[in-house]
């Protein structure tokens, strides 16, 4: 099936991008800034691209109010890569050897937990697996170690639709957070974290660049086995350019940051995101056909998961929604059901169209 108009793309990532940034990129594709070439065809060390790089960092620092005591790295390898890089850079800070605490609230934090076991002691401090990953374990139940180098959380579980409602207090130990699917969706106090990391392909731009925001005093502690490309201190010393960086992904991220600034910044977009999530959850909660299984306090504003109580209707729901231009609503294969990812670039018109379809489908079911 083909469409003669833009669809409403609810994919979890790579995800929908602001139409304005796509049009600008298209306009600049063959002749960027009068150079007679695209931004992808110029040297990453040229003064022209370095200006893009510096401006991208500046705008991200402005949007997130990142203190000067934090380094911003623009790397590759996605969150999966950082699942290895984080323990290799930080586990050595453990008081009695390489060790870190993990709060497991879904598939992504579980992946981080399992990967870290290759580099030291990964201690499971709390898990909501017994609750089928429908909640965040209460802070009072966390069994944090006294000798851990850091505490790791996934701030928003893209697959399950669980989101921390605030940054948990873990004392003087650095808090490391995977924010791949909720970065820039709401205000975050960066000073409450030791490390924030995110793949760009959900809420920022195309896949290819991974953002790591790390407190500067946490640099320089990598294990001897750490490959240079994963060594944060070496990357920081080389402006994230030990190897050729993903130049087009960085350029697109920069356009996204400009777009977000035009919307009024993170505070303004957070209000829009909350309105979108409220609209969709209200539809689900008022329905006799759909249900959301996540504890209300921890419902994700970015990845809204829901199930049809009569799962025999799943295939028809997906076929009809796709025909209506509401695309990529199938839930992740690990959990089933449906998932609507409503990132910054998803307009409220898309959510309204989805809600209208869902109510109409229910009437006809």
Automatic annotation (TrEMBL):
<dbReference type="InterPro" id="IPR000192">
    <property type="entry name" value="Aminotrans_V_dom"/>
</dbReference>
<keyword id="KW-0032">Aminotransferase</keyword>
<keyword id="KW-0028">Amino-acid biosynthesis</keyword>
<protein>
    <recommendedName>
        <fullName>Phosphoserine aminotransferase</fullName>
        <ecNumber>2.6.1.52</ecNumber>
    </recommendedName>
</protein>
<feature type="binding site">
    <location>
        <position position="158"/>
    </location>
    <ligand>
        <name>pyridoxal 5'-phosphate</name>
    </ligand>
</feature>
<dbReference type="InterPro" id="IPR015422">
    <property type="entry name" value="PyrdxlP-dep_Trfase_small"/>
</dbReference>
<feature type="binding site">
    <location>
        <position position="201"/>
    </location>
    <ligand>
        <name>pyridoxal 5'-phosphate</name>
    </ligand>
</feature>
<keyword id="KW-0664">Pyridoxine biosynthesis</keyword>
<feature type="modified residue" description="N6-(pyridoxal phosphate)lysine">
    <location>
        <position position="202"/>
    </location>
</feature>
<dbReference type="InterPro" id="IPR020578">
    <property type="entry name" value="Aminotrans_V_PyrdxlP_BS"/>
</dbReference>
<dbReference type="InterPro" id="IPR015421">
    <property type="entry name" value="PyrdxlP-dep_Trfase_major"/>
</dbReference>
<comment type="subunit">
    <text>Homodimer.</text>
</comment>
<comment type="pathway">
    <text>Amino-acid biosynthesis; L-serine biosynthesis; L-serine from 3-phospho-D-glycerate: step 2/3.</text>
</comment>
<comment type="function">
    <text>Catalyzes the reversible conversion of 3-phosphohydroxypyruvate to phosphoserine and of 3-hydroxy-2-oxo-4-phosphonooxybutanoate to phosphohydroxythreonine.</text>
</comment>
<dbReference type="InterPro" id="IPR015424">
    <property type="entry name" value="PyrdxlP-dep_Trfase"/>
</dbReference>
<feature type="domain" description="Aminotransferase class V">
    <location>
        <begin position="7"/>
        <end position="354"/>
    </location>
</feature>
<feature type="binding site">
    <location>
        <position position="45"/>
    </location>
    <ligand>
        <name>L-glutamate</name>
    </ligand>
</feature>
<keyword id="KW-0663">Pyridoxal phosphate</keyword>
<feature type="binding site">
    <location>
        <position position="108"/>
    </location>
    <ligand>
        <name>pyridoxal 5'-phosphate</name>
    </ligand>
</feature>
<keyword id="KW-0718">Serine biosynthesis</keyword>
<keyword id="KW-0963">Cytoplasm</keyword>
<feature type="binding site">
    <location>
        <position position="178"/>
    </location>
    <ligand>
        <name>pyridoxal 5'-phosphate</name>
    </ligand>
</feature>
<keyword id="KW-0808">Transferase</keyword>
<dbReference type="Pfam" id="PF00266">
    <property type="entry name" value="Aminotran_5"/>
</dbReference>
<dbReference type="InterPro" id="IPR022278">
    <property type="entry name" value="Pser_aminoTfrase"/>
</dbReference>
<comment type="similarity">
    <text>Belongs to the class-V pyridoxal-phosphate-dependent aminotransferase family. SerC subfamily.</text>
</comment>
<comment type="pathway">
    <text>Cofactor biosynthesis; pyridoxine 5'-phosphate biosynthesis; pyridoxine 5'-phosphate from D-erythrose 4-phosphate: step 3/5.</text>
</comment>
<feature type="binding site">
    <location>
        <begin position="243"/>
        <end position="244"/>
    </location>
    <ligand>
        <name>pyridoxal 5'-phosphate</name>
    </ligand>
</feature>
